């Protein structure tokens, strides 16, 4: 008679985040988010990132409203 052994559950690997690495990760995330927010807010139509057109404005139109930028 053969016995079928159930596979032992494997533990998930949890990354070791020290306080310093967590602080660096948080800082980088905030900086990237602030840069993205600035990029979206900069393209107001009159002052456009790509010359006199409003590609960024039109591409993220609803997201700009969600972030509180008026455009109408």
Question: How would you portray this structure in words?
Answer:
The chain crosses the membrane at residues 20-40. Keywords: Membrane, Transmembrane, Transmembrane helix. InterPro entries: CbtB_put (IPR012667). It comes from Gordonia crocea. There is one protein chain. This protein is elongated. It has helices at residues 19-42, 55-59, 61-67. It has 72 residues and is an all-alpha fold. It starts with 18 loop residues before the first helix and ends in a 5-residue tail after the last helix. It has a domain at 25-67. The protein contains three helices and no strands. The longest helix is centred in the middle third of the chain and has 24 residues, at 19-42.
Task: Tell me briefly what this model is.
This protein is mostly helical and 72 residues long. It is 50% helix and 0% strand. It has a domain at 25-67.
What is the strand and helix layout of this fold?
Blueprint: H1 19-42, H2 55-59, H3 61-67
Protein name: Cobalt transporter
Transmembrane segments: 20-40
Pfam families: CbtB
Helix content: 40-55%
This entry's quaternary arrangement is single chain
- Beta-strand segment tally: 0
Low-confidence stretches: none
- Summarize the helix and strand pattern as letters: HHH
What is the overall number of helices?
3
Structural class: mainly alpha
What distance lies between the first and last C-alpha atoms, to the nearest angstrom? 78 Å
Categorize the overall geometry.
elongated
**How much strand?**
under 5%
What integer is the average pLDDT?
78
Major beta sheet summary:
none
Q: Evaluate the radius of gyration.
A: 24 Å
Transmembrane segments: 20-40
Protein name: Cobalt transporter
Keywords: Membrane, Transmembrane, Transmembrane helix
Organism: Gordonia crocea
């Amino acid at each position: 008679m053969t016995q079928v052994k159930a596979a032992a559950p494997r533990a998930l690997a949890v990354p070791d985040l020290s306080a310093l690495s967590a602080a660096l990760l948080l800082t980088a995330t905030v900086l990237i988010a602030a840069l993205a927010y600035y990029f979206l807010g900069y393209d107001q139509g009159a002052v456009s990132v790509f010359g006199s057109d409003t590609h960024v404005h039109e591409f993220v139109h609803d997201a700009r409203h969600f972030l509180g930028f008026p455009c109408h």
